[in-house]
Write a structure and sequence with these properties.
216 residues, 12 helices
């Protein structure tokens, strides 16, 4: 029960959080209803992500949360952060996925999202995770942080870990037929299109930054 201490210390309503986290039916935590890209792109409140994903910064590293969490929920949380262009939460969520050694990217389930825009962004994020993880593996950084000691970096460069592979479903999602703009955050549409847009996203006709995925 030592993991309850940070909850009680940091939360305004700790017992409510603990009750929600511990309630066993259903065992897998439900995902909030997905929101359209255009809606998330219009949000100006920096606190919107935390209102939507209540208690997440506090409970993300709790074992009970990790047992009940799912890969699909994590992908949609990352989708929310990327569409909001919330770079802090994008890094936190991508790092959380990186540290989940039981989640291999090639086995990631197809969300089969019925919204074409949302599905395109999800596919782009999945490809971005693969690129990011392989970039770090190429640097000799190991997903298992217990192995990530400085003195072992050189040996891992000589004997690198196997690279991650992308699941099959993103390749079956076509680029958008029209431009999809993520949250501009005060930038002009022209500036986002010409200077800030990620090349990874641009090939899917998505305009927004994905650089936060590279800092897991």
């Amino acid at each position: 029960m030592y993991q309850t201490r940070p909850i009680i210390r940091r939360s305004l309503r700790p017992w409510r959080m603990l009750f929600r986290l511990s309630f066993p039916f259903p065992w897998r935590l439900p995902n909030p209803d997905p929101l359209p890209v255009s809606f998330l792109a219009s949000i100006s409140s920096p606190q919107f992500f935390y209102k939507r994903h209540d208690f997440l910064p506090t409970i993300r590293n709790l074992l009970l949360f990790r047992w009940r969490d799912t890969r699909t929920r994590a992908l949609y949380r990352l989708y929310d952060a990327i569409c909001l262009q919330d770079h802090v939460e994008s890094v936190h969520e991508a790092t959380y996925i990186w540290e989940r050694l039981d989640w291999q990217l090639e086995d990631w389930p197809d969300p089969a999202d019925p919204d074409p825009e949302r599905y395109t962004v999800l596919a782009g994020i999945m490809e971005g995770l693969v690129e990011s993880f392989n970039w770090r593996l190429g640097l000799g950084i190991c997903r298992d942080r217990h192995k990530a000691l400085q003195k072992r970096l050189e040996r891992r460069r000589d004997e690198p870990e196997p690279l991650e592979e992308c699941p099959s479903w993103p390749s079956q999602v076509p680029p958008s037929s029209h431009p999809i703009y993520l949250n501009l955050g005060g930038c002009s549409m022209e500036e986002m299109t010409t200077r800030l847009a990620s090349p990874l996203f641009k090939r899917r006709n998505i305009f927004g930054e994905s650089g936060s995925l590279m800092f897991v």
